[in-house]
Design goal:
Length: 361
């Protein structure tokens, strides 16, 4: 079954990579389109993905196929400062690095050597933030600021506290938020193009598929080795779906420690490799594959800085534009919404700064 989970994770990643190439699904690009041209098309695509992910994840949970409470997002401690600071830094970093973690993998597959450098630096910084010197800083400072929420920090848990049953709370939350986003996305007829609708629905569905693969197919009520509940091939020990910061660190770790038999191919690594493979396949099929390097030293410095900010910010906030902005939000966790807003704010601020800087030159 582990091999099946890994194969399906790779397939989900490949589908995401190919679709991202075809539809130009890009969160940073969506924010830039609004600021530059007041064009909300790509932002609606992202919001459509969130809506589909929320509704699909709630349906899986309601059917008893997965338990969203067994993800990393619905903890009892709301580390709001980590979500806020991490999100702001990640948002600023993805502007400097020409795209988020997911876009970095997609661009690597299409021959972008700048994104390859971003991948290496992002992965290294993320690993340092998880287990290295930056991790000590993070744990002893930002992560100490938290709100204890024994009932859970997700929106349905708050509604349960207000008197609703768990099933009703989840249904109401998903329908109101997911349904509201659907209405917003389809309110404009100019949004209804094949790429826009396909990109939004497909990315949301891939996130839901990720929950099903990891949280249902990969679930063991009792691991024969530990006699405890387990999720096959996950780095966190919990069920996972799409996220693209920590997986880049785990990929580098596996490559560097390949001879260490304790290091294994995991769900997250297979997913990341799938994105690169899917993007490469689509780029070659459509003859869009081309090598691209840095323009000058200043361009290199911007990308190095952005990669480092994304590596630290993504781990601190427990996710990226996809990991928190779609996957995390699909669990309706408050921390995910904080991170989502912070990423948007950080990206907006850095985009405006970059435009101001260019105007002064």
């Amino acid at each position: 079954m582990t091999a099946t989970v890994l194969l399906l994770a790779f397939a989900l990643g490949a589908a995401f990579g190919a679709l991202s190439q075809k539809t130009h699904f890009c969160t940073m690009g969506a924010i830039a389109d609004i600021i530059n041209m007041e064009d909300w098309s790509r932002m609606r695509m992202w919001l459509l993905a969130i809506a589909v992910a929320i509704l699909g994840s709630a349906a899986l949970h309601g059917a008893g196929l997965i338990d969203l409470g067994k993800s990393i997002y619905r903890g009892e401690n709301l580390t709001w400062l980590s979500h806020l600071v991490g999100g702001l830094l990640f948002g600023a970093g993805m502007v400097l690095a020409s795209g988020c973690g997911a876009r970095t993998l997609t661009r690597v597959g299409a021959g972008n050597l700048k994104s390859l450098v971003v991948f290496l630096v992002l992965g290294l910084t993320a690993y340092m933030t998880m287990r290295g010197v930056l991790g000590v800083l993070r744990v002893n400072t930002l992560d100490t600021v938290a709100l204890a929420m024994p009932g859970g920090q997700d929106i349905p848990a708050l509604l349960v506290g207000a008197g609703l049953t768990p099933g009703s709370a989840l249904a109401v939350s998903a329908l109101v938020i997911g349904g509201g986003l659907l209405a917003f996305c389809f309110a404009r007829r100019d949004f209804l193009t094949l790429d826009n609708v396909l990109g939004g629905i497909a990315v949301g569905a891939i996130v839901v598929g990720g929950w099903y693969v990891s949280g249902h197919l990969g679930y063991l009520a009792e691991d024969p080795d530990t006699l405890q509940e387990a999720f096959l091939a996950t780095n966190s020990g919990r069920m996972e779906s799409l996220t693209f910061v920590a997986p880049q660190a785990y990929t580098l770790e596996l490559l560097m420690l390949w001879s260490d038999s304790s290091r294994k191919l995991t769900y997250a690594i297979a997913l990341a490799l799938g994105v690169v493979a899917g993007s490469t396949a689509w780029a070659l099929l459509t003859r869009q594959f081309r090598w691209e390097g840095f323009r000058d030293v200043a361009d290199l410095v911007r990308h190095l800085t952005g990669a480092a900010l994304m590596g630290f910010g993504g781990v601190t906030a427990m996710g990226c534009t996809i990991g928190q902005g779609v996957t995390g939000v699909s669990t309706l966790a408050l921390g995910s919404f904080i991170t989502l807003a912070a990423i948007a704010a950080g990206a907006t601020g850095m985009l405006k700064y970059e435009y101001w800087r260019l105007m002064r030159e």
